[in-house]
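New to this. Please check both lines:
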Amino acid sequence: MSDAHNEHESAIRTPKQLVAAVAGFFLVTVIGIILLVSFVTTSKLTGAGTDSQSADAVEARLRPVADEGYVLKDANAPKVLLAGDAVYTANCIACHGTGAAGAPKTGDIAAWTSRLAQGYDTLIKHAIEGIRAMPARGGNPDLDDVEVARAVVFMANQSGAKFAEPVVPAPAAAPAEAAPVEAAPAPEVAAPVATVPEAAPAPVAVAALAGDTGKKIYAQACAACHTSGIIGAPKFADKAAWVDRLKQGNAVLYEHAIKGFQGKAGMMPAKGGSAASDEEVKAAVDYMTAAVK
């Protein structure tokens, strides 16, 4: 009986044992907390696969926007002329890569034979000034003559020609300094004569002038595409083709005509590939929209 009773007695029988047990319990608890904190603070967190607090991640968030694709250019720096293949890819491939608008496809020797027979100078002249459905300078008025020539040579040489690469012309020599000229005596100024201001032109005359300008620019720069509807251009006076474009408003139509536009249906070069002013291009847009209203 005494042995059975002893089996249920506690292991802590004295005050010293109780103090030691409590101290041990707290020591184990503190050590466990320290180990847990150390594990959490030193381990790399996993989530989306990257550490948002790493040095690289912080630097990427603080990096200036300019480092992400914007390049500052010196407007006064000399222009770097592009190679022929670069000009072709950026400006010519839309038509000469597919044969759109009757353009001879690059590499099609049969289509280029009659063109090459015209000679190098004629080909370059047509590319710079434009001919039939092809706008001047491929629709990019910022291209230099040498860049246009390089693109033509690139296409022609892949289509049976053996033209030499165009060279950049040497800059003209600076004119010699002229000898100083003595200042001439100031002429006598005649007394001002009173003039009667001319009457302002009538609004009807102004409208007629704007219409004439729009018709003229249309014939020079727009008719090649908008008369036949090539390269996705809405045909002149075709109300069904213009209805969605009229809904965009004049401001959008002006911007697309001046800056150029490329969409799913086709492409339009800036200002139709011409050197017309913004106001002249707007007048041409008004001329075309007036025909479908």
Notes: The chain is about 50% helix and 0% strand.
